[in-house]
Design brief:
single chain, 235 residues, alpha+beta, 4-stranded antiparallel β-sheet, 4 helices, 9 strands, 28% helix, binds uridine-5'-diphosphate
């Protein structure tokens, strides 16, 4: 996965992210929306709400609730994916919901729901991290449009994947790398670079504490850059 100069298959350096595109807006029926690319991942996010909850019994009198549906289009991967929601999509929806909750003050919108719909148009490894990063932009746009309420925004949230390739820490793995990396780890952080989630396993090749620290260091720098891009596109 690395050539003799330490360059990756797609020409990137080991700690270099893929080309990132983040655009706020685009869907006129949504309260907030965003389009994001991490390399060949192409993802659209639509946010609806805060709005009445249906079914009503799911509403909470003390706070608003966040609901997330992550969906991969059947044509988003080389081998056609079955259109029915898979266990993987249900699990990733939950991961994204938990990652985005700390971004906003849902308690300001009791009895309402904020619905986040994520459509993966093209996937190439790291769709959950790209979805979290783009989802935050769409979510902020929805809250800003709703009662003009900036005060309900707590912190930008962004995410990246990291792995170990040939014993070195690599940033933002594509599908090919993800499939053969010794370790892969998803990192979600706030704008104060506090950790929201670290999701990773070293079952096939256990990693050391030093390697974990290196992944956190490379990952936090990348997240800080992503948050700058989120801010720029929301101006
Ligand atoms: N993938 C695929 N078919 C599927 C599910 C995933 O080809 O049914 C690919 C896709 O490129 C995805 C990658 O496998 O981005 C890694 O999937 P994973 O479950 O690790 O989630 P992600 O890295 O996208 O967050």
């Amino acid at each position: 996965l690395l050539d003799e100069n330490g360059i990756r298959c797609d020409g990137r350096k080991i700690d270099e992210p893929r080309k990132i595109v983040i655009k706020a807006g685009g869907l006129k029926n949504a309260d907030g929306s965003a389009y994001i690319e991490f390399g060949d991942n192409k993802i659209l996010v639509g946010v609806f709400g805060p709005r009445d909850v249906h079914p009503k019994h799911m509403s909470n009198t003390d706070t608003g609730i966040l609901r997330v549906r992550y969906h991969m289009e059947p044509f988003s991967v080389g081998e056609r994916k079955r259109p029915a929601p898979s266990r993987r999509e249900i699990e990733i929806s939950k991961v994204i919901k938990e990652a985005l909750e700390p971004a906003v003050m849902l308690e300001k919108f009791p009895r309402t729901a904020v619905d986040v719909f994520i459509e993966v148009l093209q996937a190439d490894g790291g769709t959950r991290t790209a979805s979290i990063t783009g989802g935050c932009v769409a979510l902020f746009m929805a809250l800003k449009n709703h009662h003009d309420d900036h005060r309900a925004i707590k912190s930008h949230i962004a995410a990246v994947s990291l792995g170990i390739l040939n014993g070195q820490v690599a940033l933002d793995l594509d599908y090919k790398e993800d499939s053969s990396a010794e370790t892969d780890l998803n990192l979600v952080m706030t704008e104060g670079l506090e950790l929201i989630e670290i999701q990773g396993t070293g079952e096939e090749a256990p990693f050391t504490r030093d390697e974990l620290n290196d992944m956190l260091e490379v990952g936090s720098a990348a997240i800080a850059d992503l948050i700058e891009k989120q801010k720029a596109c929301l101006l």
